[in-house]
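Researcher: Good morning. I'm working through a list of sequences from a screen, and I'd like to move beyond sequence-only analysis. For each chain I'm collecting a predicted structure so we can compare shapes side by side. This is the next one on the list. No need for commentary yet; just the structure.
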Amino acid sequence: MFDKTESFNDFEYWFRVWNPATRTASEKFGYFYDREIFCFAFGYVSSTETYKVVAFCNRETTSDVRVLNLGGDHVWRNIESFPAVLGYNHVHLRGTMTWLATAEHAVIVSLDLETETYNQYMVPCGADEVQANEPTIGVLGGCLCFSYTYRETDFVIWQMKKFGVEDSWTLLLKISYHYFF
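Model: Good morning. Structure tokens for this chain:
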């Protein structure tokens, strides 16, 4: 959980962990201040049993990214900025935080939470005509999915059968809107 307050043109960010079963909250931790507005994502690294919070701030053509290890020293670390604007729709899948991003066209960006390195994947073939703000990503059946409206006539869902393998994109569903009118 995070909170922010505005003072002197800076935003103050911090976190608390709340346990709904006991109705208790931790002390505030993970403070940082910035003039920009950050968005947050939460993930888990199973190999180290570590929870991480990822903060990102979109600039004109890049995204600044910071990582906080929960259970560690509660200090934010800046990691390499990504040369694209990250979308607000993201998913946690197989130890990665994955976003739909825009550079010159829509791409999928995946941050490996263990190594804190990025991978970039192309969207399914034929989906490059889609407007960058239209599609979404999600997880279905343990696989990354990419969905969008095609030419305002069909709703399409692609599924990446093997995560990180662009050749594994498979057309899962295509529903014509004509049947609904």
